[in-house]
Amino acid sequence: MLSVTDLHVRFGEAHILQGVSIAVGRTPLAIVGRNGMGKTTLCQAIMGLVRSSEGAVTLAGTPLTGKLPYQVARSGVALVPQGRRTFPSLSVHEHLLLVARTRDAAWTIDRVYDTFPRLAERRRNGGTELSGGEQQMLAIARALLMNPTLVIMDEPSEGLAPVIVDQLIGVLRTLEGDGMGLLLVEQNLRVATEVASEVSIMVTGRIATTLPAHVLAADTEIQRRYLGVAAGGHH
Amino acid sequence: MDLAATIVLNGLTLAALYFIVASGFSLIFGLMRVVNMAHGTLYLVAGYVGYRVFEPLYDADVWWAWYAGLAAGIVAAAVAGALLQWVLLSWMQGQELRQALVTIGVSIIVADQVLAIFGGTPRQFFAPDAIFGSTRVPFVGGYPTFRLVQIGIAIAVGIALWLVLNRTRLGMMIRAGVDDREMLGACGVNVPRVGIAVFALGAALCGLGGVIGSTAQPLALGQDGRFLLISLVVVIVGGMGSITGTAIGAILVGLAEQIGQAMFPTYSVILTFVIMVAVLALRPQGILGRA
């Protein structure tokens, strides 16, 4: 579905992505790693929000490299960005109207309100009047309504209460059934391993290793080496 | 009493014109973050192109001569604004200083071309009979009807802008783009095209102001600089990107000019800038601007 080959991103002297290659198929792929390893830059480079200096990104064979963000979005990629980035001047309902196009797509405004009843209750509220969890649901709903081939989610669990994180995991697990690809960037190892079947570990702008989610979840030695997490701290 | 009322009404009619012109400037800045130094030039373009259409029709005694001039002026300004964004400014998105310098360059070139083509003689539109003459206003007496119409048009522009921004898909895109341009693009919205539409809309408002203003007072070179300066002061006082703020800024500046001219004519020009300095000192983002 999505294929990233030897992608490099430089900001002036800083070499942020140093040849990243990943492939996302029908099943979700998660990317984990410590802060500052280039995970967010990878999401932005795929979306066209930052320019890559070398390498290629293709979606189902269509090249995305060098396209503007709106062209990437129209090719079938949606982004749930880090920090949610909902629009403060738009109401909940307006966010959905902005991206909703066709009535016969898999995700419609009605389905969003069925899936996230809390958003239906707050449909007239502005983007800033929502709690962190509600904003996250809105950012996800905004991406799903574009009915993309692939959704990129950049730390969706960041700053959410544990009970909301459980809801989030539930929603993310349904995407595969809709035929939607998922690239999930996470700091939260539990979310990554419960949603994705495979997990790639990113270290200083490179993919260090890719392994099945259940292997990573069980191997505290790998967790400590690449992620610096204390054994058992995430369950 | 009569004099005071007349001064206030004069201030409000002037404010109406300033609002129409400055609202276009504010709209463009709000979404595009472009300080369009050629905004006054769009006023000139609308005035002169409109006049070129108006003059032969007026000489032929056609009743709709003024309306044709108005339409031509608005369209000319909108096309000029769209071209400015599409051909020049879109290549330097986000480079604010470069955009400001390019638009200054455009304004100098266009002013010289206007001088070469139309000469230096001032022109003035004649309002159609229906809105010419005078109307009796309480406390003021006879007052030029056209100036009252000017206030009506400004109110209509304000309401129309509010409706466009809050009730249409384009308005939704503009508000979202003001919040976060990048994310608007990531939502699949063709942001460059929205930018051209906003530039055309802002320029059209300036063009409307150009023909209205050139009916109330003569059109000549120098009006471009004057209306650019006024647009800057109005949006700095009112707050960049806020339509209500622009209205408040226009009313303050319009009233200050008229009261100043009546009370202390020699120093009246200073009053406008005193207001601007005071606002900048106490509330740098403008009266209704977001910090």
Question: Which keywords apply here?
Answer:
heterodimer, A: 235 residues, alpha/beta, Rossmann fold, six-stranded mixed sheet, four-stranded antiparallel sheet, 10 strands, globular, disordered C terminus, B: 291 residues, mainly alpha, two-stranded antiparallel ribbon, 11 helices, 2 strands, 75% helix
Overall number of strands of chain A: 10
> How is the largest sheet of chain B built, in terms of strand order?
1-2
CATH topology of chain A: Rossmann fold
Helix content of chain B: over 70%
Radius of gyration computed on alpha carbons of chain B: 19 Å
Percent of residues of chain A in beta strands?
25-35%
Q: State the name of the first-level CATH class of chain A.
A: Alpha Beta
Examine the secondary-structure arrangement and name the CATH architecture of chain A: 3-Layer(aba) Sandwich
What can you tell me about this protein's structure?
- The complex is a heterodimer of chains A (235) and B (291).
- Helices cover 35% and strands 26% of the residues of chain A.
- Chain A is of the alpha/beta class.
- Chain A has one domain (2-227): Rossmann fold (3-Layer(aba) Sandwich), CATH 3.40.50.300.
- In chain A, strands 6-7-8-3-9-10 form a six-stranded mixed sheet, with helices on both faces. In chain A, strands 2-1-4-5 form a four-stranded antiparallel sheet, with helices on one face.
- Chain A is globular and about 45 Å long.
- In chain A, 45% of the residues are buried.
- Chain B has a domain at 19-220.
- The longest helix of chain B is centred in the first third of the chain and has 31 residues, at 2-32.
- The model of chain B has no long low-confidence stretch (mean pLDDT 93).
- In chain B, strands 1-2 form a two-stranded antiparallel ribbon.
- By secondary structure, chain B is mainly alpha-helical.
- Chain B is globular and about 55 Å long.
